[in-house]
Amino acid sequence: MDKIIINGGKKLKGEVVISGAKNSALPILFATLLTDEPTEITNVPLLADTETTITFLNFIGKKTVRSGNIVRTCLSDKYKHIAPYDLVRRMRASVLIMGPLLAKLKQVEVSLPGGCTIGARPIDIHLDAFKMMGAKICIEKGYLKIFVEKELQGAMINFRFPSVGATENVLLSAVLAKGTSTILNAACEPEIEDLAKVLNKMGAKVSGAGTKKIVIEGVDKLHGFAHEVIPDRIEAATYMIAAAITRGEITLKKVNPQHLKSVNDKLKRSGLYIKEVKDTILVKWVKNLKPQNIKTEIYPKFPTDVQAQWMVLMSLLNGKTKIEENVFENRFMHVAELRRFGANIRINGRVAKIKGVSRFSGAPVMVSDIRAGAALVLAGLAAEGKTTISRVYHLDRGYEMLEKKLKNLGADIKRIKT
Ligand code: UD1
What we know:
418 residues; alpha/beta; UDP-n-acetylglucosamine1-carboxyvinyl-transferase, Chain; 2 domains; four-stranded mixed β-sheet; 14 helices; 31% helix; binds uridine-diphosphate-N-acetylglucosamine
């Protein structure tokens, strides 16, 4: 398994081009299942998760070919309706196979995502929505079977929580359902808007994406499309924090500042210099930063996917910070690892209390998930001495060319195969 070695303490300076958004690319790739016509998706980041999705599509029967950051799909074989354990277990976004296959084949069998029991977290919102659209659901031999006897019917769906994945799954199925569907309390993330844009290019009738109420009028058939994936706002935020934490100066290119308002706001309040011009953001450390409390919430508020990175920055500022995690119940796995660098963090339920320390010292650490991994890289960049990061396959799921981009900015970082 690969490891990343960082010798910290270098100021990062220069330009970095932000990749396409993983969380947009994945649902758009799954959307190709809704048409038999050719599709072309550009700005698809080269990541383990996009590779897994391409393998998944080919397994299901959609001919999918990647050439660099372009993914093309063309004529399909007859689709399989079974999503096996080996593919589903690799990433949670595999559950997005349910919507398109239910819409196209009227049936889908998905290996249960880890730790999931029907009716309870974490996909109850998806399943309740399918039920409202007339689907029947049962579990057999570890597989969730979802099917409709006649047609998938449009429905009025009121989410108990604005789940990103559930909003996407309803979009991916309701576009081919009979009649009109309305999602109330829908997720408003930019990635939802991007997916809706693609579906409309395919001939779907989706309105209101990006707001809490989305209306989808079902159509009979969907067509091919060409689409460029939006920039990855989470990757962008990670590089902005990298500039702040190393007291450097980074220009982010091919980014959408509109999608980063909450993070930019907090960084500006903390004293970082930020200048946005069209699709670039200049981030420059000019003075000591001040701690800023955050609460993670649904878009457009502070993203949970930047919580771990924020915690690292706050850990190195003079003063106290409170971080409240309101989206996921158990998203402080990085805290134990950050303590190895010397961070002073106390956890009480959903709240982390941080007392800033003057320095981190490099340490051997282990990644538990994508964003925790980003946090450990940031900590390593800021720490004195050597940091060895293991289980970096989590980082490969979410950060395109991470070492190369950081090296270009002046970091002392390398990957070793062990
Ligand atoms: C997506 C993003 C992920 C991000 C998250 C929240 C992708 C591929 N992943 O994940 O990076 O961190 O949004 O912004 O786009 N929940 C339920 N029942 C459900 C569905 C969700 O209880 O049926 C809960 C989850 O356990 C979690 C919360 O709702 O606590 C948010 O989950 P959700 O918005 O669905 O996140 P994902 O779509 O999995």
